[in-house]
Design goal:
With 278 residues, the protein is an alpha/beta fold. Helix content is 49%, strand content 15%. The strands form two sheets. An eight-stranded parallel beta barrel has the order 1-2-3-4-5-6-7-8, surrounded by four helices. A two-stranded antiparallel sheet has the order 9-10. Strand 7 (181-183), helix 9 and strand 8 (209-212) form a beta-alpha-beta unit. It starts with 9 loop residues before the first strand and ends with a helix. The model has no long low-confidence stretch (mean pLDDT 90).
Length: 278
Amino acid sequence: MEAIVFVSASLLFVPGSRSDRFAKARAAGAGLTVIDLEDAVAASDRDSARSAALTQLASDPQGWAIRINGVRTAAGVRDLAALIDAAVLPEMLLVPMVEAASDLAVIAGALGDRCPQLIPLIETPRGLRHARAIASHAKVEAMMFGGGDFSGELGVELSWEPLLLARQQFVLACAEARKPAIDVPFIRLDDAAGLAEECARARAIGFAAKAAIHPAQLAAIAAAFIPNEAEVAEAREALAAYEAGGGQAIRFRGRMLEAPFIIRYRAIIARHEEQTNA
């Protein structure tokens, strides 16, 4: 079984209404820079934000993603119409409030062969219930857990414990569809220790990346999700020992090493190589 690998350890959101921040956001070094046309933009500014995003793409098309509005909303319909007519499309589209694979079929059908890879956001209990089917859509590159709206749906605080079960169910759905899972941004901007802890917890339960809402968060996310030298060295040593042992269960560093654990080590090597070549 192939390892699930997502090249970007971090996604940094920048409001589409703040075109003056686009260059700074891009220079911050996130794996993917996302121009946001949805939550970060006031309803009155969404038309101008859309125009600014498409202007940016026309002049500098590489390395950008756009989060459109939900396709079941008027703003989302306008976003999609503008993308149909746009000369240049982003590398990826983030799609909020996805509750069924049919939401993605609308986008893929409208954009046809030009449709970028899609990252659906699962932000409601109904979306979570259909997450495996959504993740299985051919255009889906990865899935993102939209914890902010999800916490609102549940009437709970946006923190680790109230959303742990939903996160675990989300990760399981992504794993079944063989798609990487991206965690929600950490919203307490002055809590560096809390950010580091949540990143570690997210990676420990199977997330491949985490979104950010400020450039200062990127270092902690990279430290948690990009394999360090020790992890890469251990993975290479384990793979070499397993192959030397004939691809069967062996003792490695005082514990059993067999096929299921090799998948994780291969994922570490693949992530390291993707980061090195990015």
